[in-house]
Here is the input.
Amino acid sequence: MIITFCGHSKIYEDNNLEENIFQLLLEEKCKGEVDFYLGGYGHFDAIAKKSCVQYKNINSFANVHFITPYLDEKYLKNKMDMSGFDDSIYPEIEQVPKKFAIVERNKWMVRQSDLVIAYVNYSWGGAVKTLEYAHKLKKRYINLGTYTF
Here is the structure.
């Protein structure tokens, strides 16, 4: 099972998000291996990563992956705290112009996923576009925020 996360880079009230995400992961009762895909940018991704690492501590079949939009070593060194991740994955988006790499990485993550866990409150920005893409593809998703379709 692959679970992808998407959410706002700035969160002003966390509303027990870390605990809520962890409880969701427990409720999913993932049978066998579970892979968590995170973009690693902003508050929501940091909170989701903590929940995934906590889940991994009780489930040895869980893996936490950083999905990078760039192969640039400088980006990886300066942007990302790789602690807690098992590895980084670069999707097949080499031909995408750099300014669209994050959007295409997010779409790739959604296409791979069995479940998208989101925190989307607003109708603008990358998080809502990613959630809308999951909705369009009829992917199963859970939004812990207030945005509705």
